[in-house]
Each structure stands twice: as structure tokens, then as C-alpha cells.
Design brief:
The chain has 13 helices and ten strands. The chain is α/β, with parallel strands linked by helices.
Length: 383
């Protein structure tokens, strides 16, 4: 694995009593009661709480689209690739700058990730770079809302329609996002969400797959549970054939208990994160440093997950200075083409090359106060 700036990894994770950690999981005050209510029943695996969570999510965050809860966001992505008929020999055009969870499931299917360059203003996939990478082998396009900032779905959806490709939205970082007054599940064929420990709301680990076309629902349910039609099995039918490959990708009621309680706080968590990002955007005046932000637009409502800086100087020195003053920062994601599992580094990603050694993520979560954010601004301005 070829990864630069290994010195960024020399520090252990920061605890809250040591300063301002980069991430901190949100656990609702009523989460324990919700979990205990499941522990007192026989349903601790996939049971009624998962159904309740799916319904609550559907009502709050989709325009009545069908969905299924999964054991992780990666599980949901794998299901999206399966349902998009991605298979051996196919190509999927996907962001180079994202969590590896976006792209590893493409390899599960025997397909090839074709990495597209970034838009330097948002760090999302560049639609203009996507189109010229399309070949006869291309099956799908993947968009990631990096840091909670929406990808350019307007352009990407037009490209997907033009070439008859599936559009998959990896919304692991953007729960609560609306784009041009629409949920992304009204635009993309499949949208996945992540409830991993440090996401805006958590199920300890978990995911959600939302489908634009409800014809995929029953197949998605079967694949989530070993390929078994659980509805038929629960009728008491003794003989149940398995005629397609399935996996163990379900959410548990324990996880759903966390998700249900967290979902109630999404609006306030979202408002706080937007306020913090606004403080950073307006408060960081250092001319060597740019905050990745999304300008207010009619009909678009973001839920920031992380705050990324572009540092036109030595970011390692900045990271160490922040650490010495009780503020954790890090890279978070690496460009995926640097991992050996994806093959060799691509040589035609000039915008990714430019920012590769310049980006740094600073704290943005519910434990960060306004005074904390102002302190961080002051430190960065002094750099």
C-alpha cells in the first residue's frame, strides 16, 4: 500500500478529557431504555424494532420510497451493486476520494472501479470527468456526498440517463440532505446510508438501502437474508428453495433501538453541525487555508458531517500545532487508487493529485461547542 504522510498517523485517538476529538458518537439519552426494551423480549436480532426503524426512516427521509435496513452501509452498497446487475468484466465509474467501503463491494462483484477525478470546490466526483470515462463496459455511476456536501446530481443524472446507466448515491455522510427540493432517492436509482458509530446518527453499525423503483424490494430482502424468502418461511412453509446467492446483511433490533432514538434528534444535530460549519467558514481568515463549504442554494439543504480544510502549506505542522493545543485533526480518507487492492495508481487525476497533500479534517460533531469552534478558528488563524 502506497500512502504518503504516514506521520499523520503517529498520534493515538484523542479522548474527550484530553481536548476536542475529531469524532464522537451521538447516543440519545433515551437509548438505554430503548435497548433494554428489546433485551427484555426474545427479539434481539432482526425483529419488530427493525421494521419500526425502517418505517420511521421512510416517513422522515424519503418520498415514500421502499427501503431495507442492513448491517452496515457497506452491506447496502453491495446490495445496490447486485441490484444494478454489476458483475464480472463490468466497470463502475466511482470517486477516487472516498471511504474504501464505496469501492470494495465493486470488487466483490468481480467488476472494476474506474476512478474519476474530483471537483476541487466540493471534493465530490467531477461529472465532466465521468462522461469521458464511460465505455461499453460501464454499468453504473457512483456519487458520494463528501462531508455531507451534495454531489452534482443534476449533471450526473443526465449522464446516467444518456448512457442508460444506474446512478448510485453513497449518502453515508449526508443523512438529511435535500437537493433541489428533492431527496436523493427521488433522483438516484439506489441510495445508501450509513449508521456507523461516528455518523450523524448511529446504530453502532448499520445501513439503509433506498430504492427508487419498488420492483427491487423483494429481491433485496431475500439477498439480505441468505437468499431466503423469510415471508414464506414465516408462514410455516417447510420447504423453501434458495435460488440466488444471498448474504447475512440484516440489522439487529439492538441497533435499530439506537437508530430510532437517534432519528428523533436528527433535526437538532443537523442544525448544530450547520452552525459549526458556518463558524469555521466565516471565522477562518488564514489566507493559506480554505474551508470546503457549500453555498446556500434554494431547495438544497445540507447536513455537514465533517469539515475539511485545504491547506496551502505544511498540513502536518498545522495538525501537530492543533494537537498540541488539544484539537484532533486527521486525513480521514485516502485516495483509493493508492491501495494495492485496487491496482496501481491512476495517472490521469490531476485535481486529486493537487489536493492529495493539502486536505485536513477538523472536529464537527455534537460535542463541539461554539466556543470550541471559535478556539479552533483562532488557532488556525495564528498558524
Amino acid at each position: 500500500m502506497e500512502i504518503k504522510s504516514s506521520s499523520m498517523n503517529e498520534y493515538p485517538l484523542m479522548e474527550l478529557e484530553q481536548g476536542i476529538p475529531l469524532f464522537y458518537p451521538f447516543i440519545s439519552p433515551d437509548a438505554k431504555n430503548s435497548i433494554n426494551s428489546s433485551l427484555e423480549t426474545r427479539w434481539i436480532g432482526q425483529g419488530p424494532k427493525v421494521d419500526y426503524f425502517e418505517k420511521a426512516f421512510k416517513d422522515k427521509l424519503t418520498n415514500n420510497k421502499e427501503l431495507i435496513a442492513t448491517g452496515s452501509g457497506t452491506d447496502a452498497l453491495h446490495l445496490a451493486y447486485i441490484l444494478s446487475d454489476v458483475g464480472p468484466g463490468d466497470e463502475v465509474i466511482t470517486p477516487v476520494f472516498t471511504c474504501t467501503a464505496t469501492n470494495l463491494p465493486i470488487l466483490y462483484q468481480g467488476a472494476k472501479p474506474v476512478f474519476a477525478d474530483i471537483d476541487p470546490l466540493t471534493l465530490n466526483i467531477d461529472p465532466n470527468d465521468v462522461e469521458h470515462r464511460i465505455t461499453s463496459k460501464t454499468k453504473a455511476i457512483v456519487a458520494v456526498d463528501y462531508g455531507g456536501i451534495p454531489a452534482d446530481y443534476e449533471k450526473l443524472s443526465l449522464i446516467a440517463k444518456k448512457y442508460n446507466l444506474k446512478l448510485i448515491s453513497d449518502a453515508a455522510q449526508s443523512i438529511g440532505l435535500k437537493y433541489q427540493n428533492k431527496f436523493t432517492s427521488d433522483i438516484a436509482d439506489f441510495v445508501i446510508f450509513s449508521f456507523q458509530a461516528i455518523k450523524t446518527i448511529t446504530t453502532a453499525d448499520g445501513g439503509m438501502l433506498v430504492m427508487k423503483d419498488n420492483k427491487f424490494l423483494e429481491k433485496a430482502k431475500r439477498i439480505r437474508w441468505f437468499g431466503i424468502d423469510r415471508a414464506e418461511k414465516q408462514k410455516g412453509t417447510w420447504e423453501n428453495d434458495i435460488y440466488e446467492l444471498g448474504y447475512k446483511y440484516q440489522m439487529t433490533d439492538i441497533g435499530a433501538s439506537l437508530g430510532l432514538t437517534g432519528l428523533k434528534h436528527l433535526s437538532s444535530l443537523k442544525a448544530q453541525r450547520k452552525k459549526l460549519l458556518n463558524i469555521y467558514s466565516n471565522g477562518i481568515k488564514n489566507k493559506k487555508i480554505k474551508v470546503i463549504d457549500y453555498p446556500a442554494k434554494d431547495g438544497t439543504d445540507v447536513c455537514p458531517w465533517i469539515c475539511t480544510l485545504i491547506v496551502n502549506d505544511d498540513r502536518i505542522t498545522l495538525m501537530k500545532m492543533l494537537r498540541n493545543n488539544g484539537v484532533e485533526s486527521a486525513q480521514v480518507h485516502y485516495r483509493n487508487d493508492r491501495y494495492s487492492v485496487f491496482g496501481s495508481k491512476q495517472n490521469d487525476l490531476p485535481k486529486m493529485d493537487y489536493i492529495e497533500d493539502k486536505y485536513l479534517v477538523i472536529p464537527l460533531h455534537h460535542k463541539v461547542t461554539e466556543n470550541d469552534a471559535l478556539k479552533i478558528c483562532k488557532l488556525i488563524n495564528s498558524y
